[in-house]
Amino acid sequence: MWHRSARRAALEGSLSNTHSQTYARRPRGVGHGRLLIAAALLSMLAACDGGTQDASAGVENGTQNGTQNGASAQDAQARSKANAPVNGAKLIKISASTAATPTAQLIAQPTTQPHAQSRAEVYAQVRRMTALGKQMFFDPSLSGSGKMSCATCHSPNHAFTPANALDVQIGGADMHRQGMRAVPTLKYLQSVPAFAEHYHDSDDEGDESIDAGPTGGLTWDGRVDHGGDQARIPLLSSFEMASTPAKVTAAVRAAPYANAFREAFGEHVFDDDNATFQAVLKSLETFEQAPEVFYPYTSKYDAYLAGKTALSAAELRGLQLFNDEKKGNCASCHISQRAKDGAPPQFSDFGLIAIGVPRNRTLAVNRDPRFFDLGACGPERTDLDHRAEFCGLFRTPTLRNVALKKTFFHNGVYHSLEDVLRFYARRDTNPQEFYPVVKGKVKKFDDLPQQYWANLNTEPPFDRKPGDAPVFSDAEIKDVMAFLDTLTDGWQPPAH
Ligand code: HEC
Ligand code: HEC
């Protein structure tokens, strides 16, 4: 099994190599897919007419609602350190190590393509696509039912998670079909690396020989690498937007933004359903990378890291419990410290991990006792089926804005942070509180067949047994909750 702490050790500059390597590293470099995106965009740019039109419907429109646009200088600084490098060398480095690289960075790379656009033209095209992507994100006419947009499940006022507290959402052509997974946030996905079975951190300070195990990719099981490929999933899913490329094309052609769409993608874009569909996916992907909406770094914790504010006593205690390797050890997966280059933490290392979340018996799919959502080994993801070592693994979510969520874990089994923290604190010391008890015997890990239990993480906080003290007392749980509250964007210094 892999050690998440290997990643943390790498981040902290300690080079102890404790894991055993099971597979040879795949030859595919993590940057490969991104170069393809760049090529696709460049050809799109070549196809677009000129690229100098007015881009007034630009990124500034992207800052509506819950996300903040009143960013302070320090926020801007944190942002630019983390994700928006504008100078050449850093730009190339970042785009070679992250999957959801902001499109602007990708296409701003020097290129030998014959139809290369100037940097200004490229940025103008990104602004157009961002504005279009935003309109489509909120447009229910793209769905088969005509009633569901991306924002139905990814509400901007709730960090792009649902406004309701359902375990999983309801969709489909008749709006009666239940999904099988809880909706993740769309914020802070910009540095999720492309999925790799064996992730080797290319950070300067890391030891590249350290294998952090399966890491990256979008969705709970990491099955796609790019926002465009991801957007295809809900648009076509029978239990989500239940649409088709032809329906999407017809909707865009009739939409108030049809002319802007033609301006961005060419007069003839609507002649071909597939070309239109691809342009829709690319626009959604581009919108999802607007920094001021999706990764503003405006939480109290960011201000604290920048030395602009202090944490309360409870918040500080919570942070210590969160970081303490013998207590929560949360930061070994949900990284809480700046990287060596100063980039603010994402609160995830994007590793795919099995933590034995209890089965959610209210889900329709789970009425069949033989059905299991095994994450990376299927059924939603299909390329790793029959690979037992991937069963039960789900991608570690960011904890930024987690206090705005109403549903937690991949199957939506919990509805309060307190319940999630009790699970972490008492899963192994008091398992009967979380799993069914049959004839006096606790059926632990009831959502993962026993043959896959070897995949379960066993590092703290998952290293205890009945009779041991829980990882956190009830008071400590409150402190960790207070700390998690500091991760919500849009913090303002108290008025005095
Ligand atoms: C019916 C609810 C629903 C709708 C509508 C919906 N999504 Fe999602 N979204 C989900 C769920 C559930 C997941 C997790 C899916 C999984 O793990 O298989 C998800 C995952 C994602 C992710 C990956 C997040 C991550 O952490 O990797 C992105 C990006 C995303 N959705 C974007 C979109 C876009 C763009 C649209 C509109 C085209 C959209 N979604 C429409 C429910 C929805
Ligand atoms: C070994 C890696 C690991 C450690 C250690 C860890 N987590 Fe997690 N965390 C995960 C994974 C993986 C998930 C998703 C699990 C799932 O849904 O199946 C998760 C999910 C969560 C969620 C739910 C987020 C959401 O959007 O649904 C919260 C909250 C959370 N963790 C907090 C913590 C806290 C607090 C600690 C320390 C007590 C901690 N985690 C320790 C890997 C880890």
TrEMBL record:
Residue spans of biased composition, Polar residues class: 14-23, 61-77
Ranges for domain Cytochrome c: 128-285, 313-488
InterPro entries in UniProt: Cyt_c-like_dom (IPR009056), Cyt_c-like_dom_sf (IPR036909), Cytochrome_c_Peroxidase/MauG (IPR051395), Di-haem_cyt_c_peroxidsae (IPR004852)
Region (Disordered): 1-26, 57-84
Alphabetically ordered keywords of this record: Heme, Iron, Metal-binding, Oxidoreductase, Peroxidase, Signal
Primary localisation category: other
UniProt key word Nucleotide-binding: no
Xref: PANTHER family: BLL6722 PROTEIN, CYTOCHROME C PEROXIDASE-RELATED
GO molecular function (one): peroxidase activity
PROSITE patterns tied to this protein: CYTC
Localization annotation: Cell envelope
Annotated protein name in UniProt: Cytochrome c peroxidase
